[in-house]
Amino acid sequence: MATGVAAAPPVVASATGSPGTVDEQKAAGVGILLQISMLVLSFVLGHILRRRKFYYLPEASGSLLIGMIVGGLANISNTQKSTRRWFNFREDFFLLFLLPPIIFQSGFSLAPKPFFSNFGAIITFAILGTFIASIVTGLLVYLGGLIYIIYRLPLVECMMFGALVSATDPVTVLSIFQELGTDTNLYALVFGESVLNDAVAISLYRTMATMRTHPSGQNFFLVILRFLENFVGSMSSGIGVGLISALLFKYAALGVENLHNLESCLFVLFPYFSYMLAEGIGLSGIVSILFTGIVMKRYTFSNLSEDSQRFTARFFHLLSSLAEAFVFIYMGFDIAMERQSWSHIGFIFFSIIFILLARAANVFSCAYLLNLARPPHCQIPRQYQQALWYSGLRGAMAFALALQSVHDLSDGHGETIFTATTSIVVLTVLLIGGSTGTMLEALQVVGDSNRYHQLYEENSDGNDTGYMGQNYDEGPSTSSKFKSKLRDIRRSTSSFALLDKNYLTPIFTSQNGDRNDDTPDNSPIADKELTVSRGPSDLEGHD
């Protein structure tokens, strides 16, 4: 009898609405209101800072500080538990709904001409450079543990940490590049490297995670093979979906007046189709959606009607801006709510030093190899290399992978890596992001102070087109066989540009598809692309 009486109240409560349910609904509403309020405050603050040209506190830094302030207030009040419950989001929500629009917009907002002009250098920095940075960081962290100066982690977990902190996110730096007027080539190198760098970093992380769960046969060449399998497979999947979408919009004739909504809906669905397809077959959805964005911008976008172009460009820019602001707000909020593991401060301190050294090994070694394939007047200047090194901020991708490592690694190792990564993101965004303007002016690579513009103009009168030029026949040949091979590889990127111009563009775009080579000034996405001062080397066929 007692059992029956005890069982009755839940039934009545569910029908009439218990006080607990009402409180939960109220807490959920307060949590959502809090998130919206912080987003509004973040965008208003960013607008004010841009209007006043205050570069010491970029938008990402402002979002981060807003999250830290609100989290700190919630932490010292009695609302911490309910606030944490409704503000917190799960990892799958982060990976499925926040990261995809950010990554797609990165690929979609690439200006085709500067990107393909500098394609060889971008690929070198993004693939070879990221691999170097990941290995160097992992080895330094492992050696630091061996000599007991930091918390010791297994070698594979050190490599996982090296892979996830090698993902750069220079949104803050690039916004300042645009405001100050940086050379197009430098902007394209930083932007292009960061876009492809995310894809390489997540493939490396997943490869290392697989090696940890299957420790048998931890062979270096097997690691390379699995990385290439994951990266190339994901890239091929994304490119394939992008090309299919280009053919669909070219021949389906959806650009008539009464089908604009259908056209826009289909265009918005293809990126998520690419992401879910790659995840479903065991590949990287992030890598896939990145290359889908690049291909859809290059080929599919020109097949849309003008109304659909305006809508889709603004829609993806809107989603990306909201998602990125929310990520930085959440990071600040999370730090203030004390979810971190601060028991290994030494690990955090030395990790920051290690990633700076690894970034230097990445940039300067790759620049040295690239300069071997260039005549003296076409080499990447030392000041540009230093700007590239300084632009290696960590952001959403590093944070997402660190969040995943909490579930992938046991014994508190994931929490240690998550705390270190979050600290690295905060310090790089606040310190490096805030000092970027001063750094660019000190290096004399912005605006009228860019002393390299005149040099490039003098060298671009002939067939050469600036430091990304392609003039190999000048002067006596003193290069070694190694340099000759590098030059042959560099010429192959020009062959790709010709392939794209003569075959791919006519096949996958309509008759006016060649207008995609340059973004017109009145394009709805012109402000997202290379709106910096045009350098004299903004021509095709460099790398």
UniProtKB/TrEMBL annotation:
The keyword Transmembrane applies. It catalyses: K(+)(in) + H(+)(out) = K(+)(out) + H(+)(in); Na(+)(in) + H(+)(out) = Na(+)(out) + H(+)(in). This is Sodium/hydrogen exchanger. InterPro entries: Cation/H_exchanger_CPA1, Cation/H_exchanger_TM, NaH_exchanger. It comes from the Eukaryota. Residues 526-543 have a biased composition (Basic and acidic residues). GO terms for cellular component: endosome; plasma membrane. One of its GO terms (biological process) is regulation of intracellular pH. It comes from Panicum miliaceum. Belongs to the monovalent cation:proton antiporter 1 (CPA1) transporter (TC 2.A.36) family. Residues 457-485, 508-543 are annotated as: Disordered. Residues 41-441 form the Cation/H+ exchanger transmembrane domain. Keywords: Antiport, Ion transport, Membrane, Potassium, Potassium transport, Sodium, Sodium transport, Transmembrane, Transmembrane helix, Transport.
